Structure to design on (408 residues):
């Protein structure tokens, strides 16, 4: 089912934040890569959780059994969102970064000095820092080169995946440049040498249907607040992959997947809210099963967002004194995130001026600090980033374009 302009306009009514006009200012939320707004159903679900079953799991009384039921349903729903084999493939945590620290620490215990871990210059620090610190434990860290086009250098990737490589940690899509990486290639190369493939899908998950089984990844991480849910991190582990890892956990904790990496009491209300967010997304698709509706909806949303981002990309690059970074929109495998620099003003000053007009865009490196450094933009204050979400309309981008034109 296509996701049309009418659908987007209709969905705006579901997001209470979008109808607010603080100080009489209509807001254009173009900051989706930093975090999305939530629909009313997510807010209501979390409120209902606190009103009806705000107790811990595994009790022998009704409200606790209700929490268990909701947590099981959330795992099953997120498994459908990602295309996972079973709900036991889905672990929850505070956010992607924290889960990745836990995961990398556990994987490191299975490695020996001199083993290599490969990351990339394009990745968000959340998929670099947890691996880079393993140098302190004797692991050798390599990084795939970022080409000036904003894409990974695939020859460099192929050359650096060797029998010494034990882990390749790579993003599915760049939150700074909108690049979509070739995860199928990464899987073929890592499989050939028996390395684990850990994919950061935080920027990919809001914009494309995901199929972890088809990708064949060992681990994949994403973050609920980027796809219209609350702040919850999600880890997919291939069946059997997590059970073998020496995770940090209490002796009393359930050692089986998916619980093996979940420390302490989870944010149950938020997890319930995330389940509602996925169901909300799926409601924009058709099909007999939740999985079919998720794929249909995400396919439609991807095409809609791609069209809008392409419109902005094509228009902004024509403005004098603007440079657009990252790959163009000739391929549908391009996230709807466009970053620019302006000759006459820094990204920070531009974002501040646009913010005064109610246009919400980010500036800087957005934690993709290595990519911004490699592109030579750190001293210039980084990039001015625009992200398109399902609730954005052409009008938001026209306002942004007019605002940028005024700055030139
Ligand atoms: C591509 C990417 N990876 C990882 C993260 C970190 O996610 P979290 O805030 O859930 O730790 C972000 C957050 O912006 C991101 O954009």
């Amino acid at each position: 089912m296509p996701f049309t302009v009418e659908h987007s306009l209709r969905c705006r009514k579901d997001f209470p934040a979008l109808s607010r006009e603080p100080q009489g200012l209509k807001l254009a939320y173009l900051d989706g890569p930093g975090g999305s707004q939530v629909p009313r159903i997510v807010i209501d679900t979390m409120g209902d959780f606190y009103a009806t079953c705000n107790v811990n799991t595994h009790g022998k009384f009704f409200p606790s059994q209700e929490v268990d039921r909701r947590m099981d349903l959330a795992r099953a729903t997120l498994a459908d969102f990602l295309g996972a084999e079973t709900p036991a493939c889905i672990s929850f945590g505070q956010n992607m970064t924290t889960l990745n620290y836990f995961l990398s620490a556990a994987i490191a215990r299975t490695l020996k000095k001199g083993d290599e871990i490969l990351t990339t210059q394009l990745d968000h620090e959340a998929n670099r820092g947890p691996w880079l610190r393993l140098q302190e434990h004797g692991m050798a860290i390599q990084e795939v080169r970022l080409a000036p086009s904003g894409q990974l250098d695939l020859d460099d990737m192929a050359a650096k995946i060797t029998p010494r490589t034990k882990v390749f940690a790579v993003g599915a899509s760049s939150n700074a440049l909108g690049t979509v990486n070739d995860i199928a290639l990464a899987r073929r190369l890592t499989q050939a040498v028996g390395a684990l493939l850990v994919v950061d899908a935080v920027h990919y998950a809001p914009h494309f249907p995901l199929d972890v089984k088809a990708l064949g990844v060992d681990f994949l991480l994403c973050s609920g607040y980027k796809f219209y849910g609350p702040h919850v991190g999600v880890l997919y582990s291939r069946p059997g992959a997590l059970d073998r890892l020496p995770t940090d956990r209490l002796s009393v904790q359930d050692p089986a997947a998916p619980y093996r990496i979940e420390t302490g009491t989870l944010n149950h209300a938020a997890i319930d809210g995330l389940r509602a967010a996925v169901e909300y997304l799926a409601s924009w698709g058709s099909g007999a099963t939740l999985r079919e509706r998720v794929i249909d909806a995400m396919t439609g949303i991807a095409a809609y967002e791609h069209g809008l981002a392409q419109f902005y990309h094509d228009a902004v690059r024509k403005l004098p004194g603007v440079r657009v970074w990252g790959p163009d929109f000739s391929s549908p495998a391009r996230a709807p995130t466009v970053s620019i620099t302006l000759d006459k003003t820094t990204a920070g000053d531009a974002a501040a001026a646009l913010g005064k007009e109610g246009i919400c865009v980010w500036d800087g490196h957005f934690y993709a600090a290595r990519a911004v450094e490699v592109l030579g933009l750190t001293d210039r204050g980084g990039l001015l980033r625009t992200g398109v979400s399902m609730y954005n309309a052409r009008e938001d981008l026209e306002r942004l374009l007019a605002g940028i034109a005024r700055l030139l």
Remarks:
- DSSP finds 13 helices and 13 strands in the chain.
- The pocket of pyridoxal-5'-phosphate is lined by residues 95-97, 124, 126-127, 171, 175, 200, 202-203, 223, 233 (CB under 6 Å).
- The longest helix spans residues 290-316.
- The CA atoms of residues 337 and 376 lie 20 Å apart.
